[in-house]
Structure formats: structure tokens, C-alpha cells
Amino acid sequence: MNADTVLIVGGDSTLGRALASRLSSLGARVITTTRRAKGSRETRLLLDLASESDETLPDCSRAFLCAGITSQRACEEQPGLARRVNVEGTVRIAERLVERGSFVVFPSTNLVFSGDRPFARTDATLCPRTEYGRLKTDAEARISALGPLVAVVRLSKLLTPDFALFDGWYKRLAQGQSIEAFRDMRVAPVTLATAASTLATIGRQRISAVSHLSGDQDVSYYDVAQRLASRMTVPAGLVKGVTTSEVTQPARAIPRHTTLDCSRLVEELGMSVPSTWSAIDAVIDSIARQERDD
User: Fewest beta carbons less than 10 Å away: which of 55, 88, 115, 281?
Assistant: First the structure.
């Protein structure tokens, strides 16, 4: 086994790409998987979690399971396929990797909790209210049962540098158009870069069991939109607050809180809990730079 070889299952995913970039920058040999036959090569292997074929996996010191169906709507509308991919296929690969001595990191979600309470602890009772959350809960349980060579890392919302919602808001506000934002949907995000860096460290240090990563406070999307308007120095009145019920999104799927108790990583890694507003501001700045460059 090459101690510097890392496998990323789901290298085409947003998180998978960020992890591959981070790990490569740290000197690791990164092998990724894809379900797209085109472009597969020595360091990009063909693997489809929906299939039960006996895939050939490379020797690796650690692996990150980033593949899956992440759309909540897709999980609701195609529960059978979502279970094959997000649970059965993911667990099958985890089992094979652990059998070969690889340390496996499984990114999960705050949606394994109901969201009724803030700063959910790692040992809090799981109570998912969405199909996506239920699938992650099932996968967590089966992967955790594989022993000390696995880490489950529950993540809150991840913000990419070009986060589509914020980018769309920016463009409309720049044109003097109004936008709508949810008053009753809250978020405690971290940046994609922070998530990738933290996961890479967890894998390298083999911090097993369950860890949490989220922003330090919940804010509503309406609060975020107001901050964007302020940063752009456009009239606050362009931001219209709406509720999820007004756009027919089922209220039962909306958690009141998305923060997670990050104390384990604070203790293990000596890190600070990521700032919610710093993550949001970083994305706003990134979008503003892109708009200026265009």
C-alpha cells in the first residue's frame, strides 16, 4: 500500500473535486472515481454505486466517500435508486475498503437531526425529517458499525465560491431588480474550502467515530440577502422576505436550527468553530470579484 495514495469515491462531485485539489496540494497521490465512462484513466476509475458489479478498488491509505444523490427532491421522487446509491452502494464500498485496512471518511449531513434544537451533539438522538436525511442516517449506522477505521463527519450547508443562489441574487440586485428570500429557512454554512481542509485533516490524523462541522450560528436566508444588499449598497427594500409555505415547500422538511456542536474537532484539531458570517462574506466577495472580472 502506498501511504500517500488517497481514494475519493465521487471525484466529480463538488466536495470530491475540492478534496482532490486539497489533497494533491498536500502531496498525496489522488485517485478518484467517476460513473462516467468517458475520461476514465489510471487515476480516474469507473465506479457506479447504483450497480452491484464487483468494482476493482486501488490500494489506498485512506478514502473519502463523496459520491451520492444529494438532491433532496431526487431522493423523494426516486427513493429506490437513492437507497441503492446512498446506502447500499456506499456501504458496500466502505466494507471493502475497511477490509483492506483503508481509513474511510464518510461525509454526512445535519439533516440526520430534526433541527428542533441548536448545536446538536454528536451523540444526540437522530431524527431525520427528509428522505435524504433518512438515507444518510441508515448509511451512518452501517458504516459506523465497521469499527475504528471509519469516520463520520456531519456537515452543515457547504458554500461554493460561486454559490448559485447568492450569484443569482447578486445579478438581480445589480440590475435594480427585487429578490425574494426565506425568513423561515435558516443556515449555518461553512465554505467548501473549510470543509475540504477539515476532512483532509480528519483522514490524515485518522480521527474516527463521529465529528461535526458547521457555522457558529444560524441565520435566515432573508438575513443573508439583506447583508448582500448592504454590501452592494443597494436599497434594502429590494429584498422581499417570504415564507416557505408561500412557495409550497413542505414546512416539515425545514429545520429550525442547522448548527452542530463542533467541540470534538475544536479539541482534536485545535480549530475554531467556523464563523457563519465569514463564510457568507467570503462567497459574496468571490461573486463580486467574478462579476468585476466579467
Answer: 281
